Amino acid sequence: MGPIYSLGDFWDMVQRRLFTIACIFVLGCLASLWFAASQQHEYETAEVLQITQPQIAGELAKSTVEGSSARRMQLIEQRLMARGTVVEVIEKFGLYADMEALTQLQKVALLRESVRITGVAAAREGFADDGTISVLTITARMPTAEQAQQVASEFGRRTIELSVATRIDQARETLSFFAGKEAALADQLAALEDEIAAYRNENDVTLPGTIEFRRAEIAALNEGLLEIARERIEIRRAADQAQATERPATARRMQEEAEQQLATLDAQEQLLTRRRAGLEASLQTTPEVERRLGAYDRRLEQLQAELAQMTARRNEAEVGFRLETGRQAERLTVLEPAPLPDYPVTGARKTKALMGAAASLLAALLAAFLQELRQPALRTAAQMERETGLVPVVSIPVMDTRPPRRGLLDLFRRRS
Question: What sections of the sequence does the record tag as coiled-coil (predicted)?
Answer without folding.
Answer: 251-320
